[in-house]
Design a protein that fits this description.
Layout (H helix, E strand, L loop, with lengths): L1 E2 L12 E5 L4 H6 L10 H9 L7 H10 L2 E5 L1 E5 L9 E5 L3 H6 L4 E5 L1 H15 L4 E3 L11 H13 L7
Helix pairs in contact: 2-6
Length: about 160
Amino acid sequence: MVAHNIPPVYDENSEILILGSFPSVKSREAAFFYGHPQNRFWRVIAAVYGDDPGSTPETKTAFLLRNHIALWDVIGQCEIVGSADATIKDVVPNDLLPILSAANIKAIFVNGSTAAKYYRKFQLPATGREAITLPSTSPANAAKRLDDLIAVWNNSISAVRSNHP
């Protein structure tokens, strides 16, 4: 079993929860989310918010919190070969209730179909809250260009996002 080694990012001001499936090998090595340089998450979210997340875990955490974003993953532990979502089995879900209790989460988004699948199976029964599936920012999702991802993510997030100075 491989254990998730990255704590969730959130605070009491978080309004949007974004969940991936499980951290890649590169993310686990970096001990922070979306650590593979080819993953487009940080470029997409920077474009959606018109803000620079920087390049370190500290600056990315500050970016998330100032934009009222909570970030974590659906899966807390699983069997996985490398970073391949298709090989995930024996899933132990993360407990989302501490985030949902501490913050006023207006919407939950899942990054890709694998996160959506495991959210529906494990998280929906626990939270009773539907999640909106966004196209994966993974480099494995070659069908979506960066501009397409930005447009879809922006439209979905803008529909629920508060305007904060």
